[in-house]
Amino acid sequence: MAKRGSYGKRLKFRVKLKKKTIYTIFGFGSILLSVFIFLSFIASGPSFEYINSLIRGYFGPFSFFLPIVFILFGFLFFRLKFSLSRPNVAVGFMLVYVSVVMLFRSGYVGAALFQNISDVIRPVGTLLVSLTGIVIGLIVLFDTSLDEILKGIRSTNEILKKLIPVSLFKKKKDFLSNKPMIVKGEGKGPIVISNNIKKDDALISEKLVSNKLSSGLIWEYPPLDLLSEDEGH
Predict the structure, then answer these.
(1) pLDDT exceeds cutoff 60 at 232
(2) Is residue 17 very low, low, confident or very high in pLDDT (cuts 50, 70, 90)?
(3) For 199, what's the count of Cα atoms within 13 Å in the CB-facing half-sphere?
(4) Residue 215 reports pLDDT greater than 90
(5) Where are the transmembrane segments (predicted)?
Protein backbone atom coordinates (compact mmCIF):
# COMPACT_ATOMS: atom_id res chain seq x y z
CA MET A 1 0.00 0.00 0.00
CA ALA A 2 1.12 3.48 -0.76
CA LYS A 3 1.93 5.71 2.08
CA ARG A 4 -0.78 7.99 3.27
CA GLY A 5 -0.58 11.46 1.86
CA SER A 6 1.87 10.60 -0.89
CA TYR A 7 -0.65 11.58 -3.58
CA GLY A 8 -1.59 14.77 -1.81
CA LYS A 9 1.76 16.39 -2.26
CA ARG A 10 1.88 19.22 -4.76
CA LEU A 11 4.84 20.74 -6.39
CA LYS A 12 5.33 24.37 -5.34
CA PHE A 13 6.34 26.78 -8.07
CA ARG A 14 8.95 29.14 -6.73
CA VAL A 15 10.78 31.84 -8.59
CA LYS A 16 13.87 33.15 -6.94
CA LEU A 17 15.06 36.44 -8.35
CA LYS A 18 18.05 38.45 -7.38
CA LYS A 19 17.56 41.79 -5.68
CA LYS A 20 19.18 43.55 -8.59
CA THR A 21 16.68 41.95 -10.98
CA ILE A 22 13.74 43.04 -8.81
CA TYR A 23 15.08 46.59 -8.63
CA THR A 24 15.52 46.62 -12.40
CA ILE A 25 11.91 45.53 -12.92
CA PHE A 26 10.64 48.29 -10.63
CA GLY A 27 12.91 50.77 -12.39
CA PHE A 28 11.53 49.91 -15.82
CA GLY A 29 7.99 50.05 -14.44
CA SER A 30 8.54 53.53 -12.98
CA ILE A 31 10.11 54.87 -16.17
CA LEU A 32 7.36 53.35 -18.32
CA LEU A 33 4.66 54.84 -16.08
CA SER A 34 6.27 58.28 -16.27
CA VAL A 35 6.38 58.04 -20.08
CA PHE A 36 2.66 57.20 -20.24
CA ILE A 37 1.81 60.10 -17.92
CA PHE A 38 3.91 62.51 -19.96
CA LEU A 39 2.39 61.33 -23.24
CA SER A 40 -1.09 61.91 -21.84
CA PHE A 41 -0.34 65.65 -21.85
CA ILE A 42 0.85 65.86 -25.45
CA ALA A 43 -0.64 62.87 -27.30
CA SER A 44 -4.20 62.45 -28.51
CA GLY A 45 -6.45 59.44 -28.22
CA PRO A 46 -9.16 58.16 -25.89
CA SER A 47 -6.71 56.21 -23.70
CA PHE A 48 -4.36 59.14 -23.18
CA GLU A 49 -7.25 61.52 -22.60
CA TYR A 50 -8.66 59.23 -19.93
CA ILE A 51 -5.27 58.94 -18.20
CA ASN A 52 -4.81 62.71 -18.34
CA SER A 53 -8.25 63.46 -16.91
CA LEU A 54 -7.68 60.93 -14.14
CA ILE A 55 -4.30 62.39 -13.18
CA ARG A 56 -5.57 65.97 -13.32
CA GLY A 57 -8.48 65.03 -11.10
CA TYR A 58 -6.18 63.61 -8.44
CA PHE A 59 -3.28 66.08 -8.58
CA GLY A 60 -4.68 69.19 -10.28
CA PRO A 61 -2.39 71.61 -12.13
CA PHE A 62 0.72 70.12 -10.50
CA SER A 63 0.07 66.78 -12.19
CA PHE A 64 2.50 67.85 -14.93
CA PHE A 65 5.39 67.33 -12.47
CA LEU A 66 4.23 63.85 -11.47
CA PRO A 67 6.30 62.05 -14.18
CA ILE A 68 9.47 63.52 -12.66
CA VAL A 69 8.72 61.69 -9.40
CA PHE A 70 8.49 58.33 -11.18
CA ILE A 71 11.57 59.05 -13.30
CA LEU A 72 13.67 59.80 -10.21
CA PHE A 73 12.45 56.65 -8.48
CA GLY A 74 13.21 54.71 -11.65
CA PHE A 75 16.79 55.96 -11.54
CA LEU A 76 16.89 55.01 -7.86
CA PHE A 77 15.83 51.43 -8.60
CA PHE A 78 18.35 51.15 -11.42
CA ARG A 79 21.13 52.11 -8.99
CA LEU A 80 22.99 53.99 -11.63
CA LYS A 81 26.17 55.77 -10.71
CA PHE A 82 25.22 59.40 -11.20
CA SER A 83 23.72 62.15 -9.08
CA LEU A 84 20.04 61.70 -10.02
CA SER A 85 20.03 58.06 -8.91
CA ARG A 86 20.82 58.87 -5.29
CA PRO A 87 18.06 58.19 -2.73
CA ASN A 88 18.02 61.74 -1.37
CA VAL A 89 17.08 63.14 -4.80
CA ALA A 90 13.97 60.99 -5.25
CA VAL A 91 12.83 61.25 -1.62
CA GLY A 92 13.50 64.99 -1.40
CA PHE A 93 11.65 65.78 -4.63
CA MET A 94 8.70 63.65 -3.54
CA LEU A 95 8.51 65.54 -0.21
CA VAL A 96 8.55 68.88 -2.02
CA TYR A 97 5.92 67.70 -4.50
CA VAL A 98 3.53 66.36 -1.87
CA SER A 99 3.97 69.48 0.30
CA VAL A 100 3.26 71.82 -2.62
CA VAL A 101 0.19 69.81 -3.67
CA MET A 102 -1.11 69.94 -0.10
CA LEU A 103 -0.29 73.64 0.32
CA PHE A 104 -2.27 74.67 -2.76
CA ARG A 105 -4.94 71.97 -2.29
CA SER A 106 -4.27 70.84 -5.83
CA GLY A 107 -6.64 68.13 -6.98
CA TYR A 108 -8.36 65.50 -4.90
CA VAL A 109 -5.13 64.38 -3.19
CA GLY A 110 -4.13 67.90 -2.14
CA ALA A 111 -7.60 68.78 -0.87
CA ALA A 112 -7.90 65.51 1.07
CA LEU A 113 -4.48 65.90 2.70
CA PHE A 114 -5.15 69.51 3.65
CA GLN A 115 -8.58 68.71 5.08
CA ASN A 116 -7.46 65.68 7.08
CA ILE A 117 -4.52 67.49 8.65
CA SER A 118 -6.61 70.63 9.26
CA ASP A 119 -9.07 68.59 11.29
CA VAL A 120 -6.23 67.79 13.69
CA ILE A 121 -4.07 70.93 13.82
CA ARG A 122 -6.30 73.54 12.10
CA PRO A 123 -5.59 75.22 8.73
CA VAL A 124 -2.82 77.44 10.12
CA GLY A 125 -0.96 74.40 11.37
CA THR A 126 -1.44 72.71 8.01
CA LEU A 127 0.14 75.68 6.25
CA LEU A 128 3.12 75.49 8.60
CA VAL A 129 3.42 71.75 8.00
CA SER A 130 3.37 72.30 4.22
CA LEU A 131 6.03 75.00 4.35
CA THR A 132 8.16 72.89 6.68
CA GLY A 133 7.81 69.94 4.32
CA ILE A 134 9.00 72.08 1.40
CA VAL A 135 12.06 73.26 3.33
CA ILE A 136 12.92 69.75 4.55
CA GLY A 137 12.40 68.38 1.04
CA LEU A 138 14.81 70.94 -0.41
CA ILE A 139 17.40 70.13 2.25
CA VAL A 140 17.10 66.41 1.50
CA LEU A 141 17.01 66.98 -2.26
CA PHE A 142 20.22 68.99 -2.39
CA ASP A 143 21.79 67.10 0.53
CA THR A 144 22.76 70.32 2.21
CA SER A 145 22.03 72.45 5.26
CA LEU A 146 19.69 75.39 5.72
CA ASP A 147 22.60 77.86 5.86
CA GLU A 148 23.88 76.74 2.49
CA ILE A 149 20.40 77.07 0.98
CA LEU A 150 20.14 80.65 2.29
CA LYS A 151 23.58 81.42 0.89
CA GLY A 152 22.51 80.03 -2.46
CA ILE A 153 19.41 82.23 -2.46
CA ARG A 154 21.52 85.29 -1.66
CA SER A 155 24.05 84.51 -4.37
CA THR A 156 21.24 83.98 -6.87
CA ASN A 157 19.77 87.35 -5.90
CA GLU A 158 23.14 89.04 -6.43
CA ILE A 159 23.54 87.40 -9.84
CA LEU A 160 20.08 88.59 -10.88
CA LYS A 161 20.94 92.13 -9.79
CA LYS A 162 24.07 92.03 -11.96
CA LEU A 163 22.19 90.66 -14.95
CA ILE A 164 19.26 93.07 -14.53
CA PRO A 165 20.56 96.45 -13.26
CA VAL A 166 18.24 98.29 -10.91
CA SER A 167 19.06 101.58 -12.66
CA LEU A 168 16.92 100.52 -15.61
CA PHE A 169 13.80 100.84 -13.47
CA LYS A 170 14.71 104.26 -12.04
CA LYS A 171 13.36 107.46 -13.57
CA LYS A 172 15.94 109.28 -15.64
CA LYS A 173 16.67 112.87 -14.70
CA ASP A 174 16.20 115.68 -17.17
CA PHE A 175 19.64 117.19 -17.62
CA LEU A 176 18.27 120.41 -19.15
CA SER A 177 15.73 121.15 -16.43
CA ASN A 178 18.11 122.77 -13.93
CA LYS A 179 20.93 123.65 -16.30
CA PRO A 180 21.38 127.41 -16.90
CA MET A 181 21.25 128.75 -20.46
CA ILE A 182 24.25 130.57 -21.92
CA VAL A 183 23.84 133.29 -24.55
CA LYS A 184 26.93 134.64 -26.26
CA GLY A 185 27.12 138.42 -26.45
CA GLU A 186 29.08 140.57 -28.88
CA GLY A 187 32.53 141.05 -27.41
CA LYS A 188 31.35 140.77 -23.82
CA GLY A 189 31.81 137.05 -23.32
CA PRO A 190 29.09 134.56 -22.45
CA ILE A 191 26.14 135.80 -20.44
CA VAL A 192 24.38 133.33 -18.17
CA ILE A 193 20.62 133.72 -18.16
CA SER A 194 18.55 131.82 -15.64
CA ASN A 195 15.27 130.21 -16.60
CA ASN A 196 13.52 131.98 -13.75
CA ILE A 197 13.78 135.74 -14.40
CA LYS A 198 12.54 138.14 -11.79
CA LYS A 199 10.58 141.04 -13.17
CA ASP A 200 11.16 144.46 -11.69
CA ASP A 201 7.88 146.39 -11.64
CA ALA A 202 9.68 149.73 -11.47
CA LEU A 203 11.63 149.17 -14.70
CA ILE A 204 9.28 147.03 -16.75
CA SER A 205 5.64 147.84 -17.11
CA GLU A 206 2.96 145.31 -17.87
CA LYS A 207 1.82 147.42 -20.82
CA LEU A 208 5.20 147.10 -22.50
CA VAL A 209 5.26 143.34 -22.32
CA SER A 210 3.83 141.81 -25.47
CA ASN A 211 4.91 138.19 -25.35
CA LYS A 212 7.15 135.92 -23.31
CA LEU A 213 9.56 133.66 -25.06
CA SER A 214 9.73 129.98 -24.17
CA SER A 215 13.31 130.42 -22.93
CA GLY A 216 12.28 132.88 -20.24
CA LEU A 217 13.45 136.09 -22.02
CA ILE A 218 11.18 139.16 -22.27
CA TRP A 219 10.45 140.99 -25.49
CA GLU A 220 10.24 144.79 -25.25
CA TYR A 221 9.10 147.40 -27.74
CA PRO A 222 11.78 149.84 -28.94
CA PRO A 223 11.74 153.26 -27.21
CA LEU A 224 9.54 156.00 -28.72
CA ASP A 225 12.52 158.41 -28.94
CA LEU A 226 13.58 156.68 -32.13
CA LEU A 227 10.48 158.00 -33.90
CA SER A 228 11.12 161.66 -33.01
CA GLU A 229 12.91 163.86 -35.58
CA ASP A 230 16.38 165.12 -34.81
CA GLU A 231 16.84 168.85 -34.31
CA GLY A 232 17.99 170.73 -37.38
CA HIS A 233 16.17 168.54 -39.93
Answers:
(1) no
(2) confident
(3) 12
(4) no
(5) 21-43, 55-78, 90-114, 120-142
